[in-house]
Queue: 2 jobs
Job 1
Amino acid sequence: MPKHLVSINDLSKASIEKIFDLADKIDEKLQKKEPIDLCKDKIMATMFYEPSTRTRMSFESAMYRLGGKVISSADTKSTSSAAKGESLIDTIKVIQHYADLVILRHFNDGSAKLAAENSLVPIISGGDGSHEHPTQTLCDLYTLRREKGKIKGLNIALCGDLRYGRTVHSLVYGLAKFGATIFTVAPDDFALPEHVERRLKLAYNTEVKKFKKFDEHLSATDVLFMKNLKKSKGAKEELISENLFQPIPIEYFDAIYVTRIQMERIEGTKSRHESLMSYLVNKELLEKAKNDTIVLHPLPRRSELSYDIDKDKRAAYFKQAAYGVPVRMALIAIMLGATDDNIKMNIEKSDDHFLEDKCSNHNCITQEEENVQHKFDKVEGADNTYRCYYCDLEKIVKV
Ligand code: NCD
């Protein structure tokens, strides 16, 4: 049975550390320009149904630097037989004979899991809808380890669109595995989905800290959102009356992880949302932060991250993108069995699911593909609650 990586929950902390140890060694060799031929004669396919710069190109660069070969479908939705209506399952059943490993990015939540279920070769998710982006989390955690020397005990603020952005939906579990303290900074419209928070609590015994609670203890006056609101007087009253923002004591954080609003996943309210998040993190704000607080962003950025901090040594987002190569080299090499590092993956049993008629997530892959049985797993510790096997959305079932 092949090993797949469709969720960061597939990897234990020890396995992630193995990947990082190998990434360190690989990066040393890369710096010295020494050859690393771990995956000679192997072929990796990249199938991207959604736009990508960093994820696809760093995976491809990683495979070339490992001595392997790449076949690539960069705009799979319109240039592959998907445009003729071919299902994801059929496409995977074909591609598995052309490559030893498939990197898949797809617009439906849970698509990576469905692909994995139907593939003879390992599937690595490069992001599925707004569900998860596990390899971005590997890059994020690796950047923390490299730049801060540790992850445990760090205070990390996650800011921006935490609802539709898939990177944070993997990152929170990753941070919880390593024992970081997670703070969320987002208006209600963009708060972390409830099921993600619940899973953090039940599976990782981790509670996200929000600013409502936080400002009871700290009386910081220099605050992230309030500072920016001063820029636009008209907006200030509206936002405060909606109670969208809470004060943020910026000096408390070891890292600030910023995300863009996922406009492509939100219908209608474009201009309002854009203006809400304008210049979340800028020079003025960083002046109040600690000397060693780092700023992370999965990129691409829009107006939530100002260009005026790019030269600040604390701006770590381009390093974070660069680390994508050694991290993905290590992951590919390990998953293809090219090293002695054997990582344990959670391979779930496929025979004891609860079968129900529909997942209520309209973007779940089960809504798109014909002939896919909707499957749910019982959520341990929550009464009558079942989690979609593919997209993880929960539903209450009265049995
Ligand atoms: C992210 C993604 O695609 O989810 N980008 C990336 O892979 N680095 C973030 C985003 O698009 O906002």
Note: The radius of gyration is 21 Å.
Job 2
Amino acid sequence: MLEPLASRGYPFSMSPQKIAPFFAVFFIMLHADAQPKGFNYDEANVPAYTLPAPLIANDGSQVTSASQWQQSRRGEILSLFEQSVYGRKPGKPDELQFTVTSQDNNALGGLARRKQITILFEGGDRPFSVNLLVYIPTNRTGPAPLFIGYNFNGNHTIQSDPGIDLSKSWIRRSENGAINHRATEAARGTSSKRWPVETILKRGYAIATAYYGDVEPDHAEGWKDGIRAFYKTDENGDPLALTDWSAISAWSWALSRMVDYLETDADIDSNRIALLGHSRLGKTALWGGATEERFAIVISNDSGCGGAALSRRAFGETVQRINTNFPHWFCETFSLYNGNEGALPVDQHELIALMAPRPVYIASAVEDVWADPNGEFLSARAAEPVYALFGKEGVGVTTQPTVNTPVGDFIGYHIRTGKHDVTDYDWAQYLDFADRHFDR
Ligand code: GCU
């Protein structure tokens, strides 16, 4: 048991100069935690690798046109990702119910209309629901384009707005106002730094979010309380065992159900929906965007291993480490590639290529070495030949750009200063990217 600090003679009377080294040690400890030991963080030690070629079909023939890509090669790569990384998904349920549980036309001091919607899935063993929060700008003409993304700790954390329902779901982290994995009033607005809602609304965009834990709680046994316990067949009606899909495919499947709702909402321009996600939810956004073409723009923020970063580089987090620490995120087959990334039939540049010809944005952060920022850039770059089939330019540069210098046309990329996070800088780039591609 630790003694109280004061009884150990903790030097409260020390000068700032003397205290500084304590903070330095604390910072290094924090930093060390973000960069676990025993992994490669040195570019010189990246193993030699050859990336699978997105434009060589399974039968060895060369793909030379956008129509060949759309009609056959895209489907081949999608199946390879389903089989080896993320697993399959159910189809759209026949019984899908949307209930607007609250609406406030004067939210955030009149800046927005706020709606909360329960999306109820039926057709499995029991009803199952996900709660969607949507803010729509008041000052607009016609339906609003929209950003959508999952949040990590409940809808009530993205704004301190007391009108947002407190989540009743299991919350992964018992911190920031969650106690014993349940939300409390103190949790309101605790993630608002990552969600500049007012800025987004003032730029004319609506914003929608849902708590990913409504779909499947994020732990190894979470499937028991999630949709993987609920649906037993895939989109073709074939049996879907638990290990045939994954938490990431479950989370991304529910994103499609949110689009099903948004298509019914007259306030939203459902042809202009930008999907974004951070970190594990960035991996989810990429798989969600690959499998759902109704997302017109897809944005990956610091998604790292199993997201935008190339697996074969084994830089920072590796396939083995991610499968060991998060065994529920990927399908069972992915673990066959532990320590053997070179045998994967795909790599993550092909995931990015699955967005083509839609605009996609990949963002990294300098201190987020665990996520392999250069591997994220190289992946974005290696997706370019697929965009070229459509006559679209990708990142447009051959080496990682300097810090805080966004590049790219249909494949946007930046690396910003700072750590693993979603910042105002990131959002500023996403808003500009969406303005450009949505002709605003
Ligand atoms: C861990 C994990 C990453 C993941 C991140 C997150 O660091 O190793 O793969 O992206 O958590 O989601 O916050």
Note: Confidence is low (pLDDT under 50) at residues 1-32.
